[in-house]
């Protein structure tokens, strides 16, 4: 496979990951993370959601996705600045996740209030015989200069 | 080399990185990042400091360290939860950086006020003929439940 083919395959896996999150498709998210069944038995996966501590291993990581999906009524990722660095069997993808999300409805409304979030992610993929799989995901909020003012609730 | 030897070498590189930061030793930090001179010419490095956007390439990344060092009078990292996942030529290290830091002094004081920070990091290392080198560093703040209250300045 050429370098270009690899890069395209990694980008497709990265996109598939976010699309599965948008659909709340736990099974696909689970399949996109490395497991012991894809020829890479020694891999311990790790995951950091924005503002969270590190989660390690499939048990912890997949439980976190189940929890996030249960508390997310609507989520959309607009990916920008996607950059892929390849080295043999491993790829490091960085991207900006422009997130629009809403929690479960309250007071009988159809959807909770929508919230915009600026998050950056570093996603490490490994080549397996079943395609490129996530080995590590680290996402974090981008803080803007006026975040401190914005975080103060009116009337506080 | 055995797996255990590799793991120890990766941990040593990770520790060396934080110790160089503590000393404000720009040259060593610079040497610990992948470059085109270590047999890994295709690697584009990436770096995310807590709350920052993604920085890509040695120019951007090293400038950010020069800037941080210029604005940091004192910094100490107490690393906990260091976990190393190895796969061939690449290692993913996760750790908690318990940071104590102080900016430049104001009003003739010897040191600015010390600030504690809880940060988690994912550090990706690559094996080179010159040892394990950083390919990607992503650090982010761990937000605690009462962060919103704490972020409000007294009197605001």
UniProtKB/TrEMBL annotation, chains A, B:
Top-level division of the source organism's lineage: Bacteria
Coiled-coil spans in chain: none
Domain SnoaL-like: 10-142
InterPro entries, per the entry: NTF2-like_dom_sf, SnoaL-like
Family annotation (PANTHER family): NUCLEAR TRANSPORT FACTOR 2 (NTF2) FAMILY PROTEIN (PTHR34957:SF1)
The protein's name in its UniProt record: Nuclear transport factor 2 family protein
